[in-house]
Write a structure and sequence with these properties.
Length: 119
């Protein structure tokens, strides 16, 4: 069973930085891609950033230039470095990983970590 454990959320002032971590059980190369999603109160969950097995990255327009997704293969961990944080970045952030088996995509989720940007 795949497990994803997030850490690193918290309260930060506008303009500040946080780094989220997502530790996976087993090698991250088993996944087609890993990513970070977020969900603010009253809003739908949205993709923030993703990284494929081959290392290709993708970002939501709202975070381009401020957030960076990266991974440490030896630690089976994916990171989200968040800089220049804004109040609108406040949300629960979820780590996601997907595996394709026989043409079917399986998604796995972490438990979520709260990020609050406020003065």
């Amino acid at each position: 069973q795949v497990q994803l454990v997030e850490s690193g959320g918290g309260l930060v002032q506008p303009g500040g930085s946080l780094r989220l971590s997502c530790a996976a059980s087993g090698s991250i190369f088993q996944f087609n891609a890993m990513g970070w999603y977020r969900q603010a109160p009253g809003k739908q969950r949205e993709l923030v950033a993703a990284i494929t097995r081959g290392g290709t990255t993708d970002y939501a327009d709202s975070v381009k230039g401020r957030f960076t997704i990266s991974r440490d293969n030896a630690k089976n961990t994916v990171y989200l470095q968040m800089n220049s944080l804004k109040p609108e970045d406040t949300a629960v952030y979820y780590c996601n990983a997907d595996i394709w088996r026989v043409g079917i995509r399986y998604d796995y989720w972490g438990q979520g970590t709260q990020v609050t940007v406020s003065s």
